Amino acid sequence: MGTQKMIDIDDEKKYRIFYDKRMAQEVKADGLGDEFKGYVFRITGGNDKQGFPMKQGVLRPGRASLLLSKGHSCYRIRRTGERKRKTVRGCIVASDIAALSLVLVKQGENDIPGLTDASVPKRLGPKRASKIRKLFSLSKEDDVRKYVIRREVQPKKEGKKPYTKAPKIQRLVTPITLQRRRARFALKKKAAETAREQAADYAKLLAQRVKERKEKRAETRKRLSSLRKSSTA
């Protein structure tokens, strides 16, 4: 749907259905009123009256002070390798939660004004070639460039006509990419052949040097033995 709405509920008896529930847990919203009959919501987060956010994985209804670093939720690093101790709330909903974020899982009988009665279309379409094929059920032979979703842009200056923009398709296989792939493989093949030839030449040279060394050693031994014989005579 793409819509979102903030709903204020002051009656504690109504929102008590969320107490002791965890984040990512689904809750039936029949207790909120007749307009929510049949609706199912999933808890995605929230914060308490002082603004401390709920953090998934902290299994407690109160606050906790954690050492957070890059990759953790509820924390954004300012420097490379920075870590900081931050106060967060546990993932269990308690009575002091001021705002609770919910996602609609199942729609009920009646429409909620401003939430389920309207639909916001996606501003941008898919950009990757495989995802465009999946969206339009295209085969490998179809030209993906004809199915790119274009969006209309209204110019800021008055009197100018609106124009359309389309994203650059990612991972698009074109004749140039195939040519570059062939060139890359040819270079790899040539490099492997050159390496094999060089290895063979080196092995041949090594064998020749070993042979020369053996011949030289045999000649030295022969000379020494002839010198010994002449000295004894």
Structural class, from helix and strand content?
alpha+beta
Uncertain segments:
none
The arrangement of helices and strands along the chain is HEEEEEHEEH
- Number of helical segments with 4 or more residues: 3
Question: Which value, in Å, is the CA radius of gyration?
Answer: 37 Å
Question: β content, as a range?
Answer: 15-25%
Largest sheet: 3 strands, antiparallel
> What general form does the structure show?
elongated
Helix content: 25-40%
**Which strand order do you get reading across the main beta sheet?**
1-2-5
| Mean pLDDT rating | 91
| Distance between the amino and carboxyl termini | 114 Å
Number of strands: 7
List strands and helices in order, with pairings.
Elements: H1 12-15, E1 26-28, E2 40-48, E3 63-68, E4 84-89, E5 97-106, H2 129-136, E6 151-153, E7 163-165, H3 175-232
Please give a structural write-up:
The mean pLDDT is 91. Strands 1-2-5 form a 3-stranded antiparallel beta sheet, with no helix packed on it. The protein has 233 residues and is of the alpha+beta class. The chain is built from 3 helices and 7 strands.
